[in-house]
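A reminder from the course coordinator: this example appears on the midterm review sheet, so study it carefully.

Given structure:
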């Protein structure tokens, strides 16, 4: 008998460890996306000039360094956001709220240590990075938890069928 929706565990993050897993997904998304863009810039350097290669390598290195602020700031914000969404059953709303929180956090982090406001292009880039990281991280967490639950349910079905036979 296949698992029903009531048998599937809740894909929403509850508790600090689940949010830590979400934060790891966010960091993975950010590093992967930025490294891919950096790699493309390096590949385009013969056409676009040497500056593209330098920007590409810088983007890849900075994305790895940015994992630390993602973990230090993202984890407590994720715990608070997950707690505020604890009664919201729709995963789509979770993804949107986490994307919004990520966008705001990235813009605020981008302003740390600056005496003047960054230009609008940088603010938009920071907001897009934060929204992509947190929103996609939340979406991937839900997908990974559902897949894990299906594997466990499938493994349990095999053992049950073997015991009955």
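Designed residues:
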């Amino acid at each position: 008998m296949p698992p029903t929706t009531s048998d599937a565990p809740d894909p929403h993050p509850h508790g600090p460890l689940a949010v830590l897993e979400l934060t790891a997904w966010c960091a993975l998304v950010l590093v992967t996306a930025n490294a891919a863009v950096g790699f493309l810039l390096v590949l385009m350097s013969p056409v676009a000039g040497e500056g593209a290669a330098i920007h590409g390598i810088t983007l890849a290195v900075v994305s790895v360094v940015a994992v630390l602020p993602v973990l230090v700031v993202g984890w407590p914000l994720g715990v608070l956001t997950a707690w505020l969404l604890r009664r919201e059953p729709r995963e789509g709303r979770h993804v949107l709220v986490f994307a919004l929180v990520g966008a705001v956090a990235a813009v605020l982090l981008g302003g740390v240590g600056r005496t003047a406001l960054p230009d609008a292009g940088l603010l938009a880039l920071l907001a897009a990075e934060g929204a992509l990281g947190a929103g996609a991280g939340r979406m991937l967490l839900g997908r990974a938890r559902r897949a894990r639950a299906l594997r466990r349910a499938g493994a349990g079905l095999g053992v049950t069928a073997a015991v009955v036979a």
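Helices lie at 16-48, 50-65, 67-84, 91-110, 120-164. The mean pLDDT is 83.
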